[in-house]
């Protein structure tokens, strides 16, 4: 593998011309769009992009094979349950930090890297007066932590009853956001190097979208001695991080189904194979020549609004419907202490208010999806909006079914009954159930 020449930077020009006539670069009276060799390789060799979402094109068998390989790895790791995942995560959760540190140390030796770090770390306090900055920061923290997503709940359900989940939550917050800051530092060393190399402002170097890691980093790594080794390390890290993230989301589906249909537990391996293969089939369309356009739409909309709605619903349920006093007693039974006053205030007031502000901001600041200069047709935008609200449909349907099946002559009585904790709600450990009933009101 290391004998393969990955230096796709040795073209006749560091930038190539596309057949576009966008006014991004003007030299004498000639107007065209600049594209690096890496970007050209990514779009036309790796993705084999078509002209738009209307042109799905042929299947890119290399991408399809990579997709199948990724799902095969996930299937193997999840087949034996959370214990096998835990062993794999020991590697997948720690190795990226080692690789990131290696890349950072090497990146700091590059020309212009320190300038990139200075731009990254130098504070601009005037930005604190802008509401948009706070909203963007809230969205970033909210989504990077995955606070209302299933993986955290699913993995936490495997903890021991007395596990200090409050401590774990605080540690997770610091590690998660610390990792984001650390990764940003590495990115800006590379951007600073590229800014110095091409004599361009830093904001002209930054690119967004799914191709960021396949364009910016290969360009920088291609300039290093032993570029094959650095490129291999970087893409191994990308693979590990992607697999590590995917484990939790797939496990959500598996655990939800096996908890509701117990007969699946004895057939877990077969069920995992079915789930992974079904996900592979769903992703095949994104390995076509027009697949990147479909991917961009789904990525643009899938987490646009629903996570904030989920968070608001959860705060209302735990803080007001189930009741914070009851919730605090449950926490005391597990942790030996109730929920601190600060967290009570956050659950009932601060968090739902911030999430509501994030939701309103997301709606008012909505922009239709784009991919570079490509603008999506109305049909694609409509599909994206459907994708954004689709996760809410099961909640609404299940809530209606539960309320409908509740005892009561009127729907008001049914709703009141549905808002009360079920008599079956209790700790699974029989030795703790007596303590639970003593404190229950």
TrEMBL record:
One of its GO terms (cellular component) is plasma membrane. One of its GO terms (biological process) is amino acid import across plasma membrane. The chain crosses the membrane at residues 59-78, 98-121, 141-158, 170-194, 229-250, 271-294, 300-321, 341-363, 383-403. GO terms for molecular function: amino acid:sodium symporter activity; metal ion binding. SUPFAM superfamilies: SNF-like. It is a multi-pass membrane protein. PROSITE patterns: NA_NEUROTRAN_SYMP_3 (PS50267). Keywords: Glycoprotein, Membrane, Metal-binding, Sodium, Transmembrane, Transmembrane helix, Transport. It is found in: Membrane. Pfam families: SNF. Na(+) binds at residues 144, 244-245. PANTHER family: SODIUM-DEPENDENT NUTRIENT AMINO ACID TRANSPORTER 1-RELATED (PTHR11616:SF321), SODIUM/CHLORIDE DEPENDENT TRANSPORTER (PTHR11616). Belongs to the sodium:neurotransmitter symporter (SNF) (TC 2.A.22) family. This is Uncharacterized protein. It comes from Mytilus galloprovincialis.
């Amino acid at each position: 593998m290391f004998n393969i020449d990955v230096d796709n930077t040795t073209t006749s020009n560091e930038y190539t011309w596309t057949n576009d006539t966008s006014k991004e670069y003007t030299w004498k009276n000639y107007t065209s769009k600049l594209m690096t060799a890496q970007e050209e390789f990514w779009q036309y060799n790796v993705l084999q992009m078509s002209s738009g979402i209307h042109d799905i094109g042929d299947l890119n068998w290399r991408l399809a094979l990579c997709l199948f390989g990724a799902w095969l790895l996930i299937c193997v790791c999840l087949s034996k349950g959370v214990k096998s995942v835990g062993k794999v995560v020991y590697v997948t959760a720690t190795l990226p930090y080692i690789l990131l540190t290696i890349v950072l140390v090497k990146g700091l030796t590059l020309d212009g890297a320190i300038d990139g770090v200075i731009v990254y770390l130098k504070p601009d306090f005037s930005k604190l007066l802008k509401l948009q900055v706070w909203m963007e920061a809230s969205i970033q923290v909210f989504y990077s932590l995955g606070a209302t997503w299933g993986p955290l709940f699913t993995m936490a359900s495997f903890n021991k009853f007395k596990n200090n989940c409050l401590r774990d939550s605080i540690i997770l917050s610091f590690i998660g956001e610390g990792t984001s800051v650390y990764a940003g530092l590495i990115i800006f060393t590379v951007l600073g190097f590229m800014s110095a190399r091409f004599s361009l402002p830093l904001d002209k170097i930054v690119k967004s979208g799914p191709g960021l890691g396949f364009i910016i980093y290969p360009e920088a790594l291609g300039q290093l001695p032993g570029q094959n080794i650095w490129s291999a390390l970087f893409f191994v890290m990308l693979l590990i991080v992607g697999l590590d993230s995917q484990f939790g989301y797939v496990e959500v589906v598996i655990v939800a189904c096996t908890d509701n249909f117990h007969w699946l537990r004895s057939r877990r391996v077969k069920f995992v194979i079915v789930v992974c293969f079904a996900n592979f089939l769903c992703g095949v369309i994104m390995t076509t020549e027009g697949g990147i356009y479909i991917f961009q739409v789904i990525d643009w909309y899938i987490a646009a609004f629903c996570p904030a709605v989920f968070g608001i619903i959860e705060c209302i349920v735990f803080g007001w419907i189930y009741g914070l006093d009851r919730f605090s007693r449950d926490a005391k039974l597990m942790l030996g202490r109730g929920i601190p006053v600060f967290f009570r205030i956050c659950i009932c007031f601060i968090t739902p208010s911030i999430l509501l502000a994030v939701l309103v901001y997301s709606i008012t600041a909505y922009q239709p999806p784009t991919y570079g200069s490509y603008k999506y047709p109305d049909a694609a935008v409509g599909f994206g909006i459907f994708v954004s609200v689709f996760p809410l449909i099961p909640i609404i349907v299940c809530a209606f079914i539960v309320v409908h099946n509740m005892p009561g002559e009127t729907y008001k009585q049914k709703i009141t009954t549905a808002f009360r904790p079920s008599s079956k709600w209790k700790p699974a450990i029989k030795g703790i159930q007596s303590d639970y009933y003593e404190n229950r009101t």
